[in-house]
Amino acid sequence: MRTMKELALQMDQTDPLACYRDEFYIKEKLLYLNGNSLGLMSKRAESTVLEVLDSWKQYGIDGWTQGKREWYTLSEKLGRKMAELVGAKPNEVIVTGSTTVNIHQLIASFYQPQARRYKIITDTLNFPSDIYALQSQVKLHGYDPEDALIQIESHDGLLIEEADIIAAMEDDVALIFLPSVYYRSGQLIDVAGITREAHKRGIKVGIDACHSAGVIPHAFHDWHVDFAVWCTYKYLNSGPGGVAALFVHEQHHGLEPGLAGWFGSDKEKQFDMLHQFEPASDVGAFQIGTPHILSLAPLMGSLEHFSEVGITNLRKKSLSLTEYMMDLIEERLVGHGFKIVNPRDKARRGGHVCLEHPDAARICKALKANEVVPDYRSPNMIRLAPIPLYTSYFDVYDAISRLKQIMDDQVYLQYPNQRDVVA
């Protein structure tokens, strides 16, 4: 019978994506399991950054319309490349802004409260920035968030039940805004089912796909999701602060953006410099300001990997990696107080494994001291994300082995059980 180590080595030998590992900058001996917060840099991303810097050097202002990749329509071109990852049509995705700015833009566009239909459904486990944006938008319309913002409660502090979301879809609800994957527990929700039930009741649906874009296939167009947002610096490896993306279903093209800006203009008329806004006829209308070209540059290279591999193949390996990791944890960390709290069901599991432990903060510090990079979430969660493009099965085996040694030797007790400034 094969040992878990032998199994890892065999799976690495037969892994069709193993060749992509060499395309990323990975420090020797370092086991990086935090790609769900910030993906590693690829050599292709580095190359396209240098390419854009050179075009700036060579062309100056003319880089907007000249060179290998002219900048003026770069956001649209990258949106078309990214559309397949989320199951969208090419004219439904634009790469622009930041996630929170895009949330504000789309809530401002789609939240059109009326006297008897003015509430927004979200939940208590959502990412804080999403909640702040929703509270702000509700206040701008003169409503009290305590009344207008419905936050679905979790029964266990970890998961949200879709049945509870559907039960809250009353006649006074105008909009639903939820994550596709919960950032803490890694729960994947049934976006298609929720959208279907919401539309039966005349409620629009928006999705935050930050923790699923690039690792889980979606079908936003076919599911008739009204709008979605996501970042690109996690699974899509665009670098710290990389430009975000948004989706607007083509049925809503022509909707006036809630926040108008000149890069949302019809490209043929933008430089007429008129004071009457004439928006683009597709998703481009929801851009606001000038594209951040130097921050778009690494995404040009990183998206090439996804075009070659395909999101279905990435999801297949991601599920296999997380399954192997959970099997290892259950076999090797018995008696050390860890609890796997992410869903085991593949249909409900995102791209990371989530562990609860009362000493989570100090364990994460000990892991980093032993060259394993995890992610800590208050008050007691350790997130471990094996990334299909650059994490090997042996990396997973090695990481759990180092964790076992830390626990066996009680090395973690040397560290304070509190988070650093950036957890």
TrEMBL record:
Binding annotation for pyridoxal 5'-phosphate: T99, T100, F127, P128, S129, D130, D208, H211, Y233, W262, T290
Pathway involvement of the protein, from the record: Amino-acid degradation; L-kynurenine degradation; L-alanine and anthranilate from L-kynurenine: step 1/1; Cofactor biosynthesis; NAD(+) biosynthesis; quinolinate from L-kynurenine: step 2/3
Enzyme Commission identifier(s): 3.7.1.3
GO cellular component terms, A-Z: cytoplasm
Catalytic activity: L-kynurenine + H2O = anthranilate + L-alanine + H(+); 3-hydroxy-L-kynurenine + H2O = 3-hydroxyanthranilate + L-alanine + H(+)
Cofactor(s) this protein cannot do without: pyridoxal 5'-phosphate
Pfam families hit by this protein: KYNU_C
Biological process (GO), any one: L-kynurenine catabolic process
One term of GO molecular function: pyridoxal phosphate binding
Keyword line: Hydrolase, Pyridine nucleotide biosynthesis, Pyridoxal phosphate
Residues recorded as bearing N6-(pyridoxal phosphate)lysine in the entry: K234
Stored PANTHER family: KYNURENINASE
Role played: Catalyzes the cleavage of L-kynurenine (L-Kyn) and L-3-hydroxykynurenine (L-3OHKyn) into anthranilic acid (AA) and 3-hydroxyanthranilic acid (3-OHAA), respectively.
Family: Belongs to the kynureninase family.
Subunit composition and interactions: Homodimer.
Name listed for the protein in its UniProt record: Kynureninase
